[in-house]
Amino acid sequence: MAIITTLALIYIHMQMQIFALAYQGKNREKQITKLKEMNGLLTYNILELKSSNHLGVKLLAENSKLKFRDSASVVELVTTQPVSEADEVRVVKVKKAPNPLLSFLSLRSNGEAQAEERTGTPKPWLPLR
User: Fold this and answer.
1) β-strand 89-94 against 115-120: which pairing, if any?
2) Can you tell me whether residue 93 is helix, strand or coil?
3) Which of 36, 93, 99, 108 is an S-S bond match for 128, by CB 3.0 to 4.6 Å?
4) Is the pLDDT of residue 33 over 70?
């Protein structure tokens, strides 16, 4: 009888530990979920504080000495070799021939490289044609 009672008490004690660990696991899952939500909220707040709109509003609201650039505060730098608009710049665009190993996948019949020469001042806002 004593052995059966001892085994029953050990079994009950182990079952109680299992339930206690299960409750601890659920509490930790709740804490992890809460921390993830706080992390997301804090990340959003940090990104909002770092945004250019927020910084601009903050700087303009304060009596700071910072101002926006005007045309009078633009500085011109002297280069080693003067560049004038009269100088012609040649822009050449080269189209590459397709890879011969992959040419069987190409639907084009013309695989020759073509070059186009233009003169004048390059304008970076215009695409090469």
Assistant:
1) antiparallel
2) strand
3) 93
4) yes
Determine if residue 31 is left, alpha or beta; phi over 0 gives left, psi from -120 to 50 gives alpha, anything else beta. alpha
CB 88 within 8 A of CB 119: yes
pLDDT tier, 29 (very low <50, low <70, confident <90, very high otherwise):
very high
φ, ψ dihedrals at 93, nearest 5°: -115, 125
Domain count, the chain: 1
pLDDT digits (tens, 9 = 90+) for 66-79: 666 777 777 777 77
Please list the alpha-helical segments (H only) found in the chain.
2-50, 52-61
Q: Return the structure tokens found at 44.
A: 């959003």
Share of the chain above pLDDT 70, in %: 58
Full residue range of the structural domain in which residue 46 is found: 2-61
Residue for token digits 């809460």? 34
**Residue 85: what residue type?**
E
- 94 contacts 112 by C-beta, under 8 angstroms: no
Token digits for 76?
Answer: 């011109």
